[in-house]
Amino acid sequence: MTQLNRRRFLSSGIAIAGGGALGVFALSGTANAAGAPALHTDGREITRGWTYTAAGNLSGNQLSGAQAVDGLKPAVVPGTPLTSMIANGEYPDPLYGHIVTDTVPDTLKDTDYWYRVAFGVPRLIPGQRFWLEFAGINYLATIWLNGTEIGTIEGAFKRGVFEVTDIVAKADGTAHLAVLIGKLDYSEGPLKPSYTSGVTRGGRNGGPTGITLENGPTFFCTAGWDWLPTIPDRDLGIWQPVTWSTTGPVRLADVRVDPVLSADLGTADITVDLALDSASAKSIVVRGALDGREFTKAVTAPAGASTITLTAKDLPALRLNRPKLWWPNGYGEPHRYRLTIGVESGGQVGDERTVDFGVRRIEYSKPFTDPSGAAVNGLAITVNNQPILVMGGNWGLDEALKRNSAERLREQVRMHRDANLNLIRNWNGQSSSEDFFEACDEHGILVWQDFFSSTEGPGPANAARDLDDIRDCIVRFRNHPSILLWCGGNEGPPPQPIIDGLDALVAELDPQRAVLTSSAGDTGQDPINGYTSGGPYHWVTPATHFGTNDGTHWPPFHNEVGSYSIPTLEFVRKMLPEASWEHPDDFWADRDVNGNGGNGGGAGYLKLTAQRYGEVRNLADFARKSQLMNYECIKSIFESHAASMTGAAPGRPYPRTGVIMWMTNPAQPSFVWQMYSHDLEAHSSFYAVQHACRRVNVILDSKTFDVVVANHTRAALQGTVAITLYGLDGTAFASTSLRVNEAGPSGHTVIGNVAAQLNTAPGDVAFARLSFTDPQGTELVRNFYWAENPARAKGFAGLDDLAPAAVSVTATAQRGRDGLGLAVEVENTGHAMALMVHLQAYNTRTGERILPATFSDNYLNLAGGESATATVRLGTPPRADEIGVRVDGWKLDQRASRLRGRGVTVTFNQDALSTRPAKKTFSA
Q1: E-strand spans in 155-292?
Q2: Residue 657: per-residue pLDDT
Q3: Residue 19 pLDDT more than 50?
Q4: Is the N end or the C end of the chain the one with fewer CB atoms within 10 Å?
Q5: What Gene3D superfamilies does the entry give (predicted)?
Q6: At what angle do helices 619-642 and 684-692 cross, to 10 degrees?
Q7: Which range among 1-15, 182-196, 877-891 shows the weakest confidence by mean pLDDT?
């Protein structure tokens, strides 16, 4: 008879500790003791052999048995029903060349789904325990194993950990697992795209009425948002791995590592809390190692759940002297320590864990006087005694259909690092996974971790379920040094029971971190103020951003502000059917071109592009002009904050403390709110962010024409800024040199103004080159702008009168630590300005882009005689003899240019350069 008490569901959510791998004492896959079977504490993922079907009349008892069942199809796990259907050829990828709601029936959301798999299990000996873990399902799950129902999971962000020892002991080497995935409690029909409406999908987020928000934690954005089409299956399914493991009688259910760094950064005391699950009362030895120093402690584990605490006071190995610190990107290395820890009973290891963690000290606020005259604590981040200007990006969802492998996710986060960002806001927690936080730890990216409420609809009907998922997220991820703070939700307070519950959970489980009520304000005890959402979410002039963020406007921290962000010509063609390339329509609307209705939707943005840069003649011309639109607006979002960061000046009481761009990562192919495309191609927005967020920068204020040195570092800077102004013909008409006597640390310094010189520009448009060199003559940073003549601002249509530039491009294939890569040297060999010279890696056999391809710099701007070198890392390169580099830009003189390849082909990108058809073909 099955002993049900040994097969309990761990409803408290404690499981594998965050931030590391398992199998720390190299016992996994080896004998635990002479003649004993191996322990598998490292979590063996069940990846092969999954099948699925719509629920129908099938039963868990039937599906979790050995007998064949007709009608099941191969399933992708982790995955959703729709990803399985796409993999099986039932539907094309709906995000490319299709309108999602016209391609896949919205009825996929209206049924439950069964998943089924058989997997091998080891022979167990007395005292050995077998565990089954689900890292994430959506939305409800009932789990059966070998004919027995073993438990349930509720909510997309709650793990399920089940002991199934008694079942597996009788399994005779094979276990049969069946999982019933339950549909959402509340759903409604889709939001349809309409280009002519000027708003995205009816102007609503969260579905026609927002009822989807009544569900407990789920991917509620899949009901349809202004950046995401309605996803027909609502991302139901088993979206995270399913694993099994074995332990001895005592299991390490959770390991919490809590480092406390001294104010002088000289020592760190590490407290380790171990949650134990013991089959019976046991005398055990806890054995571990930290930074090469071992420790042991003998304790008694009572039957059931218990907790023990290890401190530096009792175990000197848990004190770190002169610790290496975890720093945000751009401020130092994100060092992580590794704690190995296990429990032994009777001389045998029963369980083991490895936890990677970081040592850092965070302060969250500084005093401000708000516009009403009240003294408030304003959000201002200090890490390891270093003030940090938060420069971050919002993620709405990592990928629309949850097709995000660990490798792809790591690449997405790495691109944020390479763009010089230091934070990601995990909007409404929609991308919460171990892989996400692990990648942020590795790359020094702080995380603003939202939870699951939004103002786009009612609060969750089941607040207890919401809080249960929140509890598990905090316990599961709190070891990650990347997590900056917890936040209740998006743009407005959650229902009061959730506010109260979240505050209590953070106080209980993670009191060192701050908790905010919502992204729009904080109502907790000792609230943190001084931050807001609210856009703008559309294109505005750089001068608008500089005027808004000049230190005269409250509040100083802006966590949502964005713009249109048009991808390259190649990607636009890839995401749209050919009939729509030159004729914006509902296919464009399904790719978010209407945004939130700002700029008058897609048609308004196209009109604005033509007003600013001249008539759009074809799709290539639209892509070309949009790269300039991208660059100047998005660059100013970050530069305007850096040019006013820290240190209140007379008449400017609100220096900037942070900005988070809306958005940096696209969940689907899109025309808006991104810094790279869905296929991870970096377009001009990426380099706008990268150039704006350099830790030392020299900035031209687009509103006042002040020249500002932004210094994020801990040391004061000295040197000289040389400024050269050029006319449309590439001739310098003014130059000046400004002395930087001292640009203080962690702040901005205004060193001069060039408005008078710009007024003398010979035409409507001028170019500005700024170069900051140190006292030894070493260039610290170079910056570039195109600017309207302040005396007669008329936009940039005059750029079409720019003479074509002659360039020399030499590409060399080279092998490095990261594999095959490229070095590309670009020189302006003529007199005309080489504007936005764009390099693209491609496969010479297929003509397709090589992605991911990481360029150290791109969209280069070079005056006559200037040169630059870009290094290129190729993620998955083809054969060496199939690697090519394509070149395009604003206007290039192909006859006068020189292209050379050393082990690589170099060509002009003729499609991208074909911007002047004999007759206009583009219709907005």
Answers
A1: 160-163, 174-182, 242-247, 250-261, 267-278, 282-290
A2: 97
A3: no
A4: N
A5: Galactose-binding domain-like (2.60.120.260), Glycosidases (3.20.20.80), Immunoglobulins (2.60.40.10)
A6: 20
A7: 1-15
Q: Name the nearest CA neighbour of 557 among 505, 506, 521.
A: 521
Q: What amino acid is encoded at 392 in this protein?
A: G
Would the pLDDT of 601 be above 60? yes
pLDDT at residue 617, as a whole number: 97
Q: What does the alpha-carbon distance between residue 838 and residue 833 come to, in Å, rounded to a whole number?
A: 14
Cα 394 from Cα 667, distance rounded (Å):
11
> Taking phi first (over 0 means left), then psi (-120 to 50 degrees means alpha), and beta for anything else, what does residue 81 get?
alpha
> How many helices (H) and strands (E) are present in the chain, helices listed first?
16, 45
User: What average pLDDT does the structure give for the chain?
Assistant: 93
Q: pLDDT tens for residues 319-344? A: 999 999 999 999 999 999 999 999 99
Is the per-residue pLDDT at 134 higher than 90?
Answer: yes
Helix 406-418 vs helix 434-443: crossing angle, to nearest 10: 30
Strand (E) or helix (H) holding 545: helix 542-548
Q: Are the beta carbons of 231 and 403 closer than 8 angstroms?
A: no
Amino acid at 100: V
DSSP letters of 58-109?
--HHHHTSSS--TT-EE--SSB-HHHHHHHTTSS--TTSSS-HHHHS-GGGG
Structure tokens at 361: 């000290």
- The stretch 92-106 carries a mean pLDDT of 98
> Where are any strands of DSSP class E within 744-891?
747-753, 765-773, 779-788, 807-816, 819-828, 834-843, 853-855, 860-862, 867-874, 883-888
Structure tokens at 228: 């995401």
d(CA 354, CA 727): 61
Task: Please check whether residue 912 is in contact with residue 623, taking contact to mean a CB–CB distance below 8 angstroms.
Answer: yes
∠ CA 369-375-377 to the nearest 5 degrees? Answer: 90
pLDDT at 38: 62
866, two tokens: 């200037």
pLDDT above 90 (res 6): no
Which single residue is written with the structure tokens 């302040």?
A: 790
Q: What is the dihedral of CA 13, 14, 16, 20, to 10 degrees?
A: 100
Neighbour count for residue 31 (Cβ, 10 Å): 11
Q: Which of 679, 21, 708 is nearest to 400 (CA)?
A: 679
- The amino acid occupying position 732 is A
Which of 818, 827, 812 shows the shortest CA–CA distance to 852? 818
Phi, psi angles (nearest 5°) of residue 646: 55, 145
Q: With H, G, I as helix, E, B as strand and everything else as coil, classify residue 196.
A: coil
Are the C-beta atoms of 557 and 408 separated by less than 8 Å?
Answer: no
Q: Which residue has the tokens 């020249």?
A: 707
Distance CA 319, CA 21 (A): 23
DSSP string, 269-314: EEEEEEEEEESS-EEEEEEEEETTEEEEEEEEE-SEEEEEEE-TTT
Query: CA–CA separation, 482 vs 424, rounded Å?
Result: 10
In the predicted model, what is the mean pLDDT of residues 459-485? 97
Residues 6+ apart with CB under 8 A from 461: 185, 186, 214, 215, 216
Q: Which of 886, 775, 807, 800 is nearest to 841 (CA)?
A: 886
Instruction: Measure the CA–CA gap between 15 and 254, rounded to whole angstroms.
Output: 5
d(Cα 864, Cα 647) in Å, to the nearest integer? Answer: 38
Residue 21 has pLDDT above 70, yes or no: no
